[in-house]
Amino acid sequence: MSTHLPRRRLGSNGPEITTVGFGAWAAGGGGWAFSWGPQDDEASVAAILHALDKGVNWIDTAAVYGLGHSEEVVGRALAKIPAGERPYVFTKCGLNWSGLDPMTQPKRDSRPSRIREECEASLRRLGVETIDLYQFHWPDQTGTPVEESWGAMLKLVDEGKVRWAGVSNYDVALLERCQKVRHLDSLQPPFSMIRRDVGANEIPWCAARGTGVIVYSPMQSGLLTDSFGVERVKAFAPDDWRRRFEHFQSPRLEQNLALRDSLRPIATKHGVTVAAVAVAWTLGWRGVTGAIVGARSPEQVDGWLAAADLRLDAEDLDAIAASIRETGAGSGPPSPREA
Fold first, then answer.
1. Which of 242-269 are b and which e, b meaning 16 or more Cβ less than 10 Å from the residue's Cβ?
2. Using N-to-C axis directions, what is the helix angle for 146-158 and 112-126, rounded to 10°?
3. How far from each other are the two terminal CA atoms of the chain, in whole angstroms?
4. Residue 331, SS3?
């Protein structure tokens, strides 16, 4: 590892992780319901290794990304690294996909038997003996009480198959129910300048209880990056999930791009990219441990890496909040100073 990046402890008793982590969603490739379109596996491996070489010490993936393929790609990258130098590996379970039609949206399934089955499969694909952080991807839709699902997750921890346990996309009500069974190590919510809602409730809940928060899509799936534009949307692959997402459609697309444009002076002031400003903004919220940032190539990693060290000042935060109000982009508290 050639670069030292700032680290924060994940919750009250989790690992110390760098404030930015590598997100392997796009590494799943094309041909499934939430694909980012085709992706070259060698480019994914190169991006992962580059991020680690720059000091990033954790990777976030999920069983459903590419219907197992992302975990396999992460496993290929891990195999190139000496065991004692490997990063933390975080993955997720609870989405049951169709083997007959990969474009069918997966069912949210957190039955205890399914969780154990998924854990064993993820361990095989990743080529590891223990998953560092295992998370429920989405709340269950099978009618299984969350206490039963969380209890099954905790058994995996007690057996040594999982080191720390968390959830993703859970609201405060579900977080409370899990916490009554045993402490939640982490929450992974969507959070960006555009999707700010969890800044009002879930992030403060976690901060008050020693539950770590690793946010996903801090650049809002590419919208809050320097080169993104309307033409990029038109060029999306046919199976790119963003084609269906409201934030990439008028009038929200234009509002979001106006917000992105307003970040350019702040990026210039600090000598960084707009993407780095977007990621750093999420890291400025009390209770946020780290941000998951994706990349399809080593060059994209270099575009957001500076966010790890970037501290936005009060003037920056106020300017961003004013731009959020002016553009009408997204929803939720416009600033950590106003949450």
1. beeeebbeeebbebbbebbebbeebbee
2. 40
3. 36
4. strand
Those residues whose C-beta lies under 8 Å from the C-beta of residue 172, and which sit 6 or more positions away, are: 201, 202, 205
Taking alpha carbons only, the member of 71, 270, 47 closest to residue 278 is 270
Domains of the chain and any CATH numbers: 15-245+276-308 (3.20.20.100)
pLDDT of 322 reads 98
231 by Cβ neighbours in 10 Å (0-12 / 13-18 / 19+) ranks as exposed
| Joined tokens for residue 315 | 């003037």
**Cβ pair 311, 41 in contact under 8 A:** no
pLDDT, tens digit, for every residue of 152-164? Answer: 999 999 999 999 9
Task: State the amino acid at position 59 in one-letter form.
Answer: I
Burial (Cβ within 10 Å: 0-12, 13-18, ≥19) of residue 325: exposed
Give the pLDDT band (50/70/90) at residue 339: low
Cβ contacts of 200-206, under 8 Å, gap ≥ 24: 200/332, 200/333, 200/339, 201/171, 201/172, 202/170, 202/171, 202/172, 202/175, 203/285, 203/286, 203/287, 203/288, 203/339, 204/286, 204/287, 204/339, 205/172, 205/175, 206/11, 206/175, 206/287
Under 8 Å between Cβ of 166 and 198: no
Query: Residue 222 corresponds to which tokens in the numbers above?
Result: 């590419």
Question: Is the confidence at residue 168, as pLDDT, over 90?
Answer: yes
**CB within 8 A of 79, min separation 6: which ones?**
127
Contact (CB, 8 A) for 196 and 334? yes
Write the CB contacts of 259 (distance below 8 Å, at least 6 apart in sequence): 193, 194, 224, 323, 324, 327, 329, 330
